[in-house]
Amino acid sequence: MSARYQLDDSLGYVYKKMAEHLELRIDSGELQPQSPLPAERRLALEYGVSLGTARRATELLRERKLVVTLRSKGTFIVDRRKTTAQPVKANADNRGVTAESLDHRDVSDNS
Known about the structure:
two-stranded antiparallel ribbon; alpha+beta; 13% strand; 4 strands; 3 helices; 32% helix; Arc Repressor Mutant, subunit A; globular; single chain
């Protein structure tokens, strides 16, 4: 499978370019608020980068508070358009977890 998205060849870190492109996709509405971000392995395939690069790009998005990661659930797009806390669907019974209630740290790598 060839990369779906091509990042420019200018100088700079690939993970930063990838995070910036993902931010553009979020801002454009292609990646909807409260929806899951594609898995890191899928992002790596879509961008033609290593898994480590995709992980670092996702980490940068968390640092920028664009996404929130819920252990065993996935990474979700934060709704930045609203000023009130919006629930992120966390499980099958539709109980929500607000992005503001989480401390936005990387919980996916802590076991």
